């Protein structure tokens, strides 16, 4: 995290005993979730993330075993909406109201002001999951409730930006703009479920991924990754000109627009695919170059830093796969050849790996523990990376065993559930260093 322009250095990993779920002075108390914004939001997000991962693993396993589950909504559509818009806004809430005040030169925000929005998001997704199996209207109502909570969060964050004396508010504004796109995607998804109109809900999912989540993570990566790296590797300059951010966001915009255009004209025309391939290729090259320039190879010496860089590397892979799939479609005159490979490289690879790395850093630093990744979180991270590789491989090579998808889902559930169990317990306990917060 950045604190008043200073980089908190990453530290050597401590013995695992200091990171166990039961460590730290004092017993777990729900009231402590209100001690800091990240405690409440991260705890709610971790529980929802683990629950949704287990829910999808059970759905895939049932299908693989030939068991019929009741579905009121297409399973793939339910999966896309839940994993794109379920727990991610809660994690972003915790990060925005922890790092945001420091970015904007403002005092800390009272967690009590976030309690109702967080409860609305959790309640909304509880309704949505029930509705996925019982009623599309109930699922749509759940998304509306969740969107109201998210809009309340965005309203408070917008007021912070307006009140900020900081001369540089670019990254905070970027997070807000992407968040507004996310709210629109939630409401469009709700309408698609309730009408029902599957195409609208599918477009909402793509907008959520390419117009909300990917830009949010890219804005945060652009601001934080070079400085984290410079704090650990003195020879690595903290280079992050604004044009790089604009170029990355423009590339994501093209990718998202291409996804929507392809869905609307399925399977798309050769001209459309050729244009998208030509527009996406430079952004993919830039991102892969940034992966190297920002220090992917030197970062391997420090686990938590390597986790952040490993996540960002997946963004370049996702964009390269997206350019390639459109190029092949233009050449062959058919549908995108690599299926959902680019989407899962982006979601599991970039978003998932970056999320685990970033929230581990925040959870450790704000619980009074060393800002480091020990062997346990490293193994959870590797499980997530394996899930990304398997899911991308299953999309690229359709001849691979069908059981790969449940295996990938199981690895994702292990990573999500393991993180939630281990780090979630910290949020209801006092800081290990005895400080408030």
Topology:
Elements: E1 2-3, E2 6-7, H1 37-64, H2 75-85, H3 88-104, H4 112-134, H5 136-163, H6 170-194, H7 198-232, H8 242-264, H9 270-293, H10 303-332, H11 341-365, H12 375-396, H13 404-424
Helix pairs in contact: 1-2, 1-3, 1-4, 1-13, 2-7, 3-5, 3-6, 4-5, 5-6, 6-7, 7-8, 7-10, 7-11, 8-9, 9-10, 10-11, 11-12, 12-13
In a nutshell, what does this entry contain?
With 437 residues, the chain is mainly alpha-helical. It is built from 13 helices and two strands, in the order ββααααααααααααα. The longest helix is centred in the middle third of the chain and has 35 residues, at 198-232.
Explain this structure to me?
This protein is mainly alpha-helical and 437 residues long. Helices cover 71% and strands 1% of the residues. The chain has helices at residues 37-64, 75-85, 88-104, 112-134, 136-163, 170-194, 198-232, 242-264, 270-293, 303-332, 341-365, 375-396, 404-424; strands spanning 2-3, 6-7. A two-stranded antiparallel ribbon has the order 1-2. Strand 1 (2-3) and strand 2 form a beta hairpin. Mean pLDDT is 91; it is low at 1-24.
Mean pLDDT figure: 91
Category from helices, strands and their pairing: mainly alpha
Q: What is the CATH class?
A: Mainly Alpha
Using the alpha-carbon principal axes, give the shape.
globular
Q: Please give the number of β-strands.
A: 2
**Through-space gap between termini:** 15 Å
- Please describe the biggest sheet, giving its number of strands, its sense, and whether it closes into a barrel: 2 strands, antiparallel
Output the CATH topology. Cytochrome C Oxidase, Chain A
How much of the sequence is in beta strands? under 5%
The CATH architecture: Up-down Bundle
List low-pLDDT spans: 1-24
Order of helices and strands: EEHHHHHHHHHHHHH
In DSSP terms (H or I, runs of 4 or more residues), the helix count works out at 13
């Amino acid at each position: 995290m950045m604190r008043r322009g200073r980089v908190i250095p990453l530290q050597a990993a401590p013995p695992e005993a200091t990171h166990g779920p039961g460590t730290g002075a004092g017993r777990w108390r729900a009231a402590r979730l209100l001690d800091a914004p990240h405690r409440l939001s991260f705890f709610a997000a971790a529980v929802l993330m683990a629950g949704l991962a287990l829910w999808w693993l059970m759905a895939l396993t049932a299908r693989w075993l030939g068991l019929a589950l009741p579905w009121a909504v297409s399973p793939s559509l339910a999966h896309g909406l839940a994993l794109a818009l379920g727990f991610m806004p809660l994690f972003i809430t915790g990060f925005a109201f922890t790092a945001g005040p420091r970015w904007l030169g403002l005092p800390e925000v009272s967690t009590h002001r976030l309690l109702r929005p967080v409860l609305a998001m959790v309640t909304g997704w509880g309704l949505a999951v029930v509705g996925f199996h019982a009623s599309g209207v109930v699922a749509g109502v759940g998304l509306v409730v969740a969107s109201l909570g998210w809009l309340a969060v965005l309203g408070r964050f917008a007021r912070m930006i307006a009140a900020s004396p900081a001369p540089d508010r670019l990254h905070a504004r970027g997070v807000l703009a992407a968040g507004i796109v996310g709210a629109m995607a939630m409401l469009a998804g709700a309408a698609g479920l309730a009408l029902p109109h599957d195409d609208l809900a599918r477009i909402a999912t793509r907008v959520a991924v390419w117009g909300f989540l990917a830009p949010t993570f890219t804005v945060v990566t652009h601001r934080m990754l070079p400085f984290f790296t410079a704090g650990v590797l003195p020879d690595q300059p903290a280079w992050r000109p604004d044009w790089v951010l604009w170029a990355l966001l423009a590339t994501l915009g093209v990718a998202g627009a291409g996804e929507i255009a392809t869905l609307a004209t399925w399977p798309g025309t050769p001209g459309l695919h050729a244009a998208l391939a030509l527009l996406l290729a430079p952004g993919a090259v830039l991102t892969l170059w940034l992966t190297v320039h920002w220090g992917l190879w030197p970062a391997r010496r420090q686990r938590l830093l390597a986790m952040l860089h490993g996540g960002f590397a997946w963004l370049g892979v996702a964009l390269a796969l997206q350019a390639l799939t459109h190029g092949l479609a233009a050449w062959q005159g058919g549908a995108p050849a690599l299926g959902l490979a680019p989407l899962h490289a982006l979601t599991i690879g970039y978003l998932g790996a970056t999320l685990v790395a970033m929230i581990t850093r925040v959870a450790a630093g704000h619980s009074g523990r060393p800002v480091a990744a020990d062997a346990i979180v490293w193994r959870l991270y590797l499980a997530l990376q394996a899930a990304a590789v398997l899911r991308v491989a299953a999309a690229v090579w359709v001849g691979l065993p069908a059981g790969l998808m449940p295996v990938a889902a199981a690895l994702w559930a292990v990573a999500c559930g393991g993180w939630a169990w281990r780090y979630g317990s910290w949020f209801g306990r006092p800081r290990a260093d005895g400080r408030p917060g």
